[in-house]
Design brief:
- GO terms for molecular function: DNA-binding transcription factor activity; transcription cis-regulatory region binding; zinc ion binding.
- It comes from Rheinheimera pacifica.
- Belongs to the Fur family.
- Homodimer.
- With 146 residues, the protein is α+β, with helices and mostly antiparallel strands.
- The chain has 2 domains: 3-84, Arc Repressor Mutant, subunit A; 94-145, Ferric-uptake regulator, C-terminal dimerisarion domain (Dna Ligase, domain 1, 2-Layer Sandwich).
- Helices cover 45% and strands 16% of the residues.
- It has 6 helices and 5 strands; from the N terminus they run H-H-H-H-E-E-E-E-H-E-H.
- The chain has helices at residues 3-17, 23-33, 41-48, 57-69, 111-123, 140-145, and strands spanning 73-76, 81-84, 94-99, 105-108, 132-137.
- Strands 4-3-5 form a 3-stranded mixed β-sheet, with no helix packed on it.
- Helix 2 crosses helix 4 and helix 3 crosses helix 4.
- The chain is globular and about 50 Å long.
């Protein structure tokens, strides 16, 4: 899906939610849309400074917070990085395949895995409020190079 299509979809969702998709938020969204993996907040700040020289860490953190609340991005907990969710529009559990060699991240949506995980949690009397499962290894391309 093209960046423009993603931006237009995000803008529409923000309008439906009564949220403001400001120019800074859109710029951070666009930066994330151009990546195949995750990026840390300070790396994101350095990229943002190319078009917004006055940007501060708080600028990026506020944009990340907004994009997360809208369900547009996922946090990769193991690397404290962020990535665009190409299936946004509603909050959903994510399963991430993270290549330790090239940094590529693939997002999966396995309802079977999600259902079993929830079933196991309920059997333990646990209520899941947020779920991201991360698996580290090698992607197909990096595996072939070895």
């Amino acid at each position: 899906m093209s960046t423009e299509t993603l931006v237009n979809r995000a803008r529409t969702i923000c309008e439906q939610n009564g949220a403001r998709f400001t120019s800074i938020r859109e710029k951070v969204f666009r930066l994330l849309a151009g990546l195949n993996g995750g990026i840390g907040a300070y790396e994101l700040l350095e990229q943002l400074k190319q078009t917004e020289p006055g940007a501060k860490p708080a600028t990026v953190y506020r944009a990340i917070e907004f994009l997360t609340e809208q369900g547009f991005i996922h946090k990769i907990e193991s690397s404290n990085a962020f990535m665009l969710c190409h299936h946004f529009g509603q909050h959903h559990p994510a399963q991430l395949l993270i290549c330790d060699h090239c940094g590529n991240v693939t997002e999966l949506h396995s309802s079977l895995l999600q259902d079993e995980f929830n079933r196991q949690a309920v059997s333990q009397g646990f209520v899941i409020k947020h779920q991201t499962i991360e698996a580290h290894g090698l992607c197909k391309i990096c595996k072939a190079k070895q």
